[in-house]
């Protein structure tokens, strides 16, 4: 079995597009298509249905997916065990991160690894919390950096730090000048926040229920850039963590 071809197969499953796979591997889409055709010829059937939106697994592809994913993971683990026997850390660590925390956290981590463990490579994927959870569950990544809302770690989680949540309004807004804002006041504000499915949205819904209020969400957007400009130009409010807030501030700095 060709490890590289099956790895491309798995990338196509996760990205849903051969053109995106081509970008990931720094090649062109026809080359990826030829490799998938070669793989399908070896399997004796089609693995993907090509659609206008990308690619979707056939029944054969669905049947093989868990077996291929397991085989790739076992192969990676065996390779790492062989390499680790030299007492020199080596290999690829697959990390999933929220867009707001990828920099400077992971860029700083890369610099540290280059100094101490230069044979370790990082593979970083960005997504919202629910995507990170899914990638952890299906083994697509080794670890994920995300927000948790329980005070006590569960299921092997390791808490790195405690982060505040900030209410963000337009420049000069009086409410956001306060050191703390009662959650019930937030329910009276026009809010822009992340789209569902979202762990953050679930947490906000829970907080609203606990406080006996209903949030006034007038706009949904996963883009921090869009949220920031809506807050600045349309007098909406949003709630962000410290890294997202820092990114939002940079987006509004004059060039």
UniProtKB/TrEMBL annotation:
<dbReference type="GO" id="GO:0003700">
    <property type="term" value="F:DNA-binding transcription factor activity"/>
</dbReference>
<dbReference type="Pfam" id="PF00126">
    <property type="entry name" value="HTH_1"/>
</dbReference>
<keyword id="KW-0238">DNA-binding</keyword>
<dbReference type="GO" id="GO:0003677">
    <property type="term" value="F:DNA binding"/>
</dbReference>
<protein>
    <recommendedName>
        <fullName>HTH lysR-type domain-containing protein</fullName>
    </recommendedName>
</protein>
<dbReference type="InterPro" id="IPR005119">
    <property type="entry name" value="LysR_subst-bd"/>
</dbReference>
<keyword id="KW-0805">Transcription regulation</keyword>
<dbReference type="Pfam" id="PF03466">
    <property type="entry name" value="LysR_substrate"/>
</dbReference>
<dbReference type="InterPro" id="IPR036388">
    <property type="entry name" value="WH-like_DNA-bd_sf"/>
</dbReference>
<feature type="domain" description="HTH lysR-type">
    <location>
        <begin position="1"/>
        <end position="58"/>
    </location>
</feature>
<dbReference type="GO" id="GO:0005829">
    <property type="term" value="C:cytosol"/>
</dbReference>
<keyword id="KW-0804">Transcription</keyword>
<dbReference type="InterPro" id="IPR000847">
    <property type="entry name" value="LysR_HTH_N"/>
</dbReference>
<dbReference type="InterPro" id="IPR050950">
    <property type="entry name" value="HTH-type_LysR_regulators"/>
</dbReference>
<dbReference type="InterPro" id="IPR036390">
    <property type="entry name" value="WH_DNA-bd_sf"/>
</dbReference>
<comment type="similarity">
    <text>Belongs to the LysR transcriptional regulatory family.</text>
</comment>
